[in-house]
Amino acid sequence: MNTHLQQAPIENQELYEQDYYLWIVTTTNLLRDRRWEEIDFEHLIEEIKDMGKDKQRELKSRLVVLLMHILKYQYQIEKRSSSWISTILEQSDQIEYLLEDSPSLKPYYLEIFKQCYSKAIRNASAETKLSVNTFPNESPFSPEDVINPDFIFSLVNQVEI
């Protein structure tokens, strides 16, 4: 087997641009059959890299939504709703699933937590019409708290946290 990547046949490279789903099916079959010389490695490598980026984007997006709803829940007590609770539980569960499926995302989660908290403040302020100064500049809960099901459970059950 060659250690360098060979150029895939032109048809397979063009297929990527013309019919993405058919390219996936074809590439999967070529991989299964170990027909290395026919695989469009250039696009395959890009797709695999994009899959990792998609997971990072999903984690970041879910974390901002979760933090924003926690802030709204804590700072607009009079407007608490089952919808907010549902969103908190759902986002928490989805983040938990992401980190279970890909434990190597945990360092990224810790890295983006402060940035996501800042975005959550801006979003919560925009939604609630409360001043951004209403919310603490630094998160009052740790990154570990936010992914702790006991913390989330106590939060939504209005038990002191």
Describe this structure in words.
The protein is an all-alpha fold. Helices cover about 70% and strands about 0% of the residues. It is built from 7 helices and no strands. Helix 1 packs across helix 2, helix 3 packs antiparallel against helix 4 and helix 4 (about 80-100) runs antiparallel to helix 7.
Specify the biggest β-sheet: none
Q: Provide the β-strand percentage band.
A: under 5%
Q: Provide the residue-averaged pLDDT.
A: 90
Terminal-residue CA separation? 59 Å
- Strand tally is 0
Rg, nearest Å: 22 Å
Report the principal-axis shape.
Answer: elongated
Helix content: 55-70%
What's the helix count?
7
* Parts with pLDDT < 50 across at least 5 consecutive residues: 1-5
Following the backbone from N to C, one meets helices and strands in this order, namely HHHHHHH
Secondary-structure-derived class: mainly alpha
